[in-house]
Structures
1.
Amino acid sequence: MEKKLTDALGRPLHDLRISVTDRCNFRCRYCMPEEMYGPDYPFLPREKLLTFEEITRLVRIFSSLGVTKIRITGGEPLLRKDLPQLIRMIASIPSVKDIALTTNGVLLKKQATLLKKAGLERINVSLDTLNNDLFTRLNSRKYRVEQVLEGIEAAARAGLRVKINMVVMKGVNDGEIVSIARHFRGSGHILRFIEFMDVGNSNGWNLKQVISMEEIVSRIHHEMPVEPMKPNYFGEVASRFRYQGSDEEFGVISSITAPFCSSCTRARLSSDGYLYTCLFASTGTNLVDPLRSGASDESIKQLIEEIWQQRTDRYSEDRSLQTGKQKGEKIEMSYIGG
Ligand code: SAM
Ligand code: SF4
Ligand code: SF4
């Protein structure tokens, strides 16, 4: 049997997150603020994007190195033309056991059934507020909360398992922690609160704007008593909690106050074919040139293997909590995907 690939800190490679576009129809303040991502922003030209064939070839190579879980993300992945076709191509790779997608949800109503038929199993929909005034200021001036909620319902009707992601920012939407928890309790969709992170360089992150996992859970516990649950598997990013006396759960992704780098098994592929070994990386490895210049699968596999073996990333654990200081220039999340 082949030796299991692990990085320099002993972490295996299990997951690949693939950004299929750097564009988005939202301008979330914490990700692609309108002032920075205006009409003149130099998004990647189409020919720079990996084709579906190139992505599928890479997934096949990654899966030969131990990757079994794929997440499609962006930018907004549902803006990528014919996305179900890519899902179908990836789903046909036997060693891929799980395909999920992260979306802002507004295009989901139209596409949910097609995505499910293509082989998608799970979907994460981002929703930070149920209030349209705040939604306009925080996420999008073009769309409304109802369109996201309709997307969520369409996904559930199509048979997709749905999780909801809420990024919590102090003084912005933290007043909705309990009301959103109530809204999704009993819906069958698992809500996950995400601590506001210092990804990229453009969101003006400041530790003072972070509401900790402890605070989130205590606010909910005050209204609806909860208890912690065990993780489902090694490397699960969310800490799980259950409303006492029920099997309804929610999660918290605590990248700031309780980092989970020691079990991070995720690699990331940007839409133009660069491999990143951390969400907070500043440089990636060019896979597109080898792909487009006739390199064999075996040599691309070796390249990825070398990169993973050298991996020492543990940005969140290294981040100085005392000062809340960010370290160095980083790539933007809309480019690399969440
Ligand atoms: N456009 C899709 C969406 O919003 O779901 C997929 C890409 S988005 C970059 C992936 C996830 O990252 C979303 O759930 C979003 O809320 C989260 N995200 C973006 N910027 C963040 C930040 N600064 N802190 C925490 N989460 C963030
Ligand atoms: Fe777009 Fe998602 Fe970033 Fe919001 S979080 S701007 S929806 S990529
Ligand atoms: Fe993984 Fe980097 Fe996040 Fe740590 S900071 S959990 S290494 S992506």
2.
Amino acid sequence: MNRVFSGIQPTGTLHLGNYLGAVANWVALQENTSIDRIYCVVDYHAITADYDPKDLMKRSVNLARDLLACGLDPEKSALFVQSQIPEHTELAWIFQACTSYGELQRMTQFKSKGDTQSFVSAGLFTYPVLQAADILLYDANMVPVGEDQVQHLELTRGIARRFNTLYGECFPDVKPLLTEAPRIMSLKNPEQKMSKSSGEGHFLALDAPENETAKMIKRAVTDTGPAEDGEMSPGVANLFTILKALGATEAHTSLMADYEGGSLRY
Ligand code: AMP
Ligand code: TRP
């Protein structure tokens, strides 16, 4: 039996990158009756970054609500909060003894998050080990995530193999399930991925009013005219990716034809 597991941190409002890279896939997988689905609000991961303890629980509940609004159906998928199942952290400790320090040092998410935080905790460093425990605790073999999580899943595979070698065959090989838009870029700086932590103007919140979303799309960084080398700029490419991923196929086709014909500028 195939089993899907994925998690999301209660670190603020859902944005379009979360949706197109991960949550849309969580919902789509519900149509496949031959797989089990388990989805988790990973609050213990969220405490590795600067946060306010007073509102963490509220943020977890709000995120669960937003996931239901995106189409997660509790009749079809399990949805729960990580800290309510103590075995996640218990397995994470055992896995820490199967994880090499050097491997954790190579995690790009640790390097980029560590550079932006005033307090870099040991938890931020061992964060991917807890992620491996989340997945393998349920023997899940498929993990729908955005592209930024692929490296963590490689680490998960390594941990499972090392555990299996030491203690006997126990955990499956996991593989990432990516959408057609696995990396949505920031609207303000299309060289970096869309993320809540980059601040206003960078991300499209799913709960923003329509006029605000329209304003943000209009302000998105595109280009300063046709590129000399004929390459589409990252900002323009990102808007085309978003348009297509949201199902606006006709608009995508006609705007792409305009772009290629040189009549769609800036
Ligand atoms: P997070 O908010 O970091 O817990 O991310 C939740 C899920 O959204 C993960 O599967 C991420 O890989 C995915 N995700 C986050 N940002 C993006 C993005 N800009 N493009 C595509 N997927 C993303
Ligand atoms: N690390 C993931 C992120 O930043 C969140 C996460 C935690 C996760 N545990 C997981 C994703 C297990 C998939 C499976 O987005």
